[in-house]
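[retry 2/3] UDP-3-O-acylglucosamine N-acyltransferase: previous attempt timed out, resubmitting with same input.
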Amino acid sequence: MKITAEQIAEVLNGVIVGDSTVEVSKLSKIEEGDKGSITFLSNLKYKHFLYTTEASVVIVNKDFQPTQPVKATMIQVDDSYSAFTKILEYANQIKLMKSGIEQPSVISEGVEYGDDLYLGSFSYIGKNTKIGNNVKIYPNSFVGDNVTIGDNTILFAGARIYSESVIGKNCVIHSGTIIGSDGFGFAPNTDGTYAKIPQIGNVVIEDNVEIGSCTTVDRATLGSTIIRKGVKLDNQIQIAHNVEVGENTVIASQTGVAGSAKIGKNCIIGGQVGIVGHITIGDNVRIQAQTGVGKSIKDGDVIQGSPAMPYNDFTKSYIYFKKLPNIVKDIEELKKIKDKEN
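[retry 2/3] UDP-3-O-acylglucosamine N-acyltransferase: success.
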């Protein structure tokens, strides 16, 4: 899809310097721009590329004054970075603007769906599932029985949504993610084997949640595993049965949260964090990468280490740890002096 500089300026409420009729059809970095692309200049470290770029349109700040001739058409705005972000969002909306039911695909009996559904080929929708308006389900996806999916939600290719799961509005579930698989529940038998405990709960994902690729959110044993509104989960995360993740919490890749842990609102959790089950993590907690959390954490704490400790204590201890060989050497010298005195 081609769009003119004039149309872009209208969307951004910008001022055109150059040819308003020039057309663009793709986005690029300023240093990699070529004919027909649009880019932006925000960090002045890259300003020299403005004079050499082959991009057709460059978004710049209104207070920027070029010192050399600029071949590209410039669109002057208050904040070039946020303006380019707006263009990215616009381009993404166009890319995702699909509708219709491709074949082969299966829509089981009792399914209800709203306007502008897109159902990609080789997808399956189970019985009595309810799907809202403008939902996009990409090819090779599975949606089980009695699932609810809210308006404007996207399931990318290969997503798996098990039965009874509830997904809210404006959610994004990326490829390979599994929602509602069985929790890890087994009881030991007297003979050393394990008996599976039926997992009969579900998963509830509230509005405006995004879940990255190959992440798993297990169904509850009883009740619900709950991902509250605004949560952002990275790729390759394990959320176990009966976990609750509070509003607007973000969790980075390769983190594992064990069963029945409760995580508060507005937390930031780094990559490769391990959280044991049946504990409570308060609101506004910061957990640094590779931390092992083995006990409940109160509101506002910043922690690091395995086992976890307050972040400031960890950094001080690490300084001492790096000096440990010298500390040991000093102790040995002191022992020698003491031995001579004796």
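[retry 2/3] UDP-3-O-acylglucosamine N-acyltransferase: The chain has a mean pLDDT of 93.
[retry 2/3] clearing retry counter.
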